[in-house]
Amino acid sequence: MNALLALSRAIDAVNRRVGRAVTWLILLAVLVSATNATIRKLFNVSSNAWLELQWYLFGAIFLLASGYTLLKNEHVRVDVLASRFSRRTQLWIEIIGVLFFLLPACGLIMWLSWPFFMDAFVNNEQSSNAGGLIRWPAKLLIPIGFAMLVAAGISHLIKSVGCLLGRCPDPRDVHTGKSAEELLAEEIAREAQQREAASHEGH
């Protein structure tokens, strides 16, 4: 079990690094989108390459961060029934879900997407849009992203079993503080209070 937990920690470390790197892709996507829109409005010039770059960046963010999202337990859950069960039963649900749903589905997508990428790579597939980008880098993101999710699923499975054996904490208890939504709501409230205070001082 110690070796498996060490493997889980290694997988989590990789997914954390990838997740942090992807945050910069979000900034890049915003800058590309804003620059493209500004140039189009001011100079009436547009580029399919820039538009497709936005799509590629969005795909990279969505796919590469999937493992990190599972690590942080931020995927959408519908726990109407599971929340009523004991913690031990909930852990068994996690194990069954990973073994019989997450891993098979992700493995199938990886298997099907690899020839999809290889065909584009071998033929140097280009966008059908004038001035568009090559397609294989975007298609490569599919097997890579699902490989990251499979790795995160294996780590989650190890930690769930470890928790049942009393060897590690519950992998679902990843929040040491407030959620991202709560932090955002507080930030919005603070900014509103600051604007209101500034408005009163102006009068």
From TrEMBL:
The keyword Transport applies. The chain crosses the membrane at residues 53-71, 91-114, 134-158. Its main location: membrane. It comes from the Bacteria. Residues 30-160 form the Tripartite ATP-independent periplasmic transporters DctQ component domain. The keyword Translocase does not apply. Part of the tripartite ATP-independent periplasmic (TRAP) transport system. Belongs to the TRAP transporter small permease family. The complex comprises the extracytoplasmic solute receptor protein and the two transmembrane proteins. This is TRAP transporter small permease protein. It comes from Castellaniella daejeonensis.
